[in-house]
Every structure is written in C-alpha cells, then in structure tokens.
Amino acid sequence: MLTRKEADTLVQLRTGMSRLNAFLHRIGAAESDQCDCGQKPETTDHFLFRCARWREERKTMVNSARNRLSAREPYAAAVRQPPADGVGRLLSARSTQRGSQGPRLHHEGAGCGDELWEDQPARPDKGRDTLLDGYSEPEFERVCHELWAHSGTSTECHFRTLVDLLFGHYLLTRGGDRRAAEISDLFTFEFAGEGSTRCMPLIFTTRAGKQNQHGRLETAGAYRNRNPLICILGGLSFYLLYRWDLGTEPFPDFSRRSSWYDIRLIKGNGAGRTAAFSYNSQRDWLGSEDGGTEGD
C-alpha cells in the first residue's frame, strides 16, 4: 500500500535521492548494479524515466499516486478540470479564452519524465475563482436571450431558469437559498423622489441558509433594468404570469397568510406549489445547452 507521503514523493520527483530509494524499496523495485532490461542503471533516474521494461509499472505508479493525493494537493487539483457546457460554458467564456494557450507543463524543456509530468501545470492560474474569472455583460445578456428565445417550448421551465439565473446574478444568492425561497420572502415599496417614473425595487429577505445558521435577517434588492432581456422584475413577472394565469396553478389567496406564505418562488415542473425545486433539476437546467429536459 502506498502511503500519502510515498505518493507525494513519487509525484514530486525532484526531492532527495534517499526518499526516492526508500520508495523504490517499498514497492519492490530497489536498484541493483544491473537492471532487468540488461542495461546498467543510472540511479533511480533509469527506473523512473528511461527503462523500457518498467513502462507499465511507471504508469501504475503514477495512477496510484494521483488517486491517493487529496483534493488539496496542487497537482491533484490541477488535473481535475470538469468540462462546462451550455449556460455554464457561456458563463465561463472569459476564463476559457484566458487559458486558450494551455498551461505550461513541468516536462517542457526537461526531456524526461513525460508520463509523470504531462498533466501537471507549472503555474496554476491564480485568477481562477477571483473577480477576473467572471463573465461580461454581453455574455450574460446572450445567456438570457437564449432562455427567452426558447421559451416557446417548455415555457415554465425556461422562465424558471431565467428567474433562477437573474436572482443569482443581481441578488448574489446561493442556489440553496433560491430553491428554498417563497413568494412571502419578496416585497416592494415605492422609493420617493427618484424621478418622473415610479421606482419600485424588488426586495428579497431570508433568515436561513448555508451561511446563515442563526436566523439572521439578510436583505437584498434590485431595480428594474432598461434592457428587458436582463431585467429581474420583467423575468419574474412573466414567470408568475405564466404560472398563475396561463398555467394550471391557481392564483394565490392573499386573504390569509396560511394560504400563500408557503408557495415556492421557484417550483419544480409539475410539482405542487409548495414543493421545493430540486438540486439536480437546478443544476441540469443551468448547466445544459438548450435548457435541459423537463421534470425533476
């Protein structure tokens, strides 16, 4: 069994020779005066890089080392880059373009160890998961346009995904907060003195969430956008209009709190009005190219 330390020693081949020798003894491949291939070995470098006899064993060693390194190790994290498609691909267009030249590999210019270093970037992108790793306004508008354009089929699903996307963009809400949101978490009021037209912002409140375990009141708000394609109030209005007027869901009874407080803001397709939107459906629709498939 390879330990974490031994796997790390294998991946980081530029460590001291004593650690490498100890590792080779551990796996039963200790050095001798003459290799089994008939050539005189050049220390561990012959076994790790040049000997044709040990090619398959080297691949096995590399796979074992990669599997045993935790996700916190820089080399292991570098080789796991899940593909993005659909809306996810559009939202990550900037980071994809920034890395179009590909990472610099450890084995470039070294002349040896290709099997071990072919997937290890020398300098991971420090802009990843920062403010630089985002999307532009035209890219966001293009995503919203696609959802509007395909709303003729699976109308409720496309409007639901549009609202989900707009709430995440403008209100900076987590996916779990949006799935748990109810229409009673929304309200509005008029801002006085804001010009010739009425100013009615959308206010969203929550007292629970992954990062709010103690019932703290959190509030977020958004105004109308002059561009109707990316307006959060416009998208929400069309979504609720379809649900309560064009769809089969009855209009809420606002005379009693018990009649409408538990109605979900974003509900699953075909599910009850108080049923939560599932994580898998949210992930599939936001990550699919044409809006995904119907159902939860």
From TrEMBL:
Molecular function via GO: DNA binding
Domain of life: Eukaryota
Gene3D superfamilies hit by this protein: Centromere DNA-binding protein complex CBF3 subunit, domain 2 (1.10.443.20)
Ranges of Basic and acidic residues composition bias in the record: 120-131
Region entry Disordered, spans: 94-132
Start and end residues of each Ndc10 domain: 153-286
InterPro entries: Ndc10_dom2_sf, NDC10_II
Coiled coil: none
Pfam families tied to this protein: NDC10_II
Name under which the protein is recorded: Ndc10 domain-containing protein
Taxonomic lineage: Eukaryota, Fungi, Dikarya, Ascomycota, Pezizomycotina
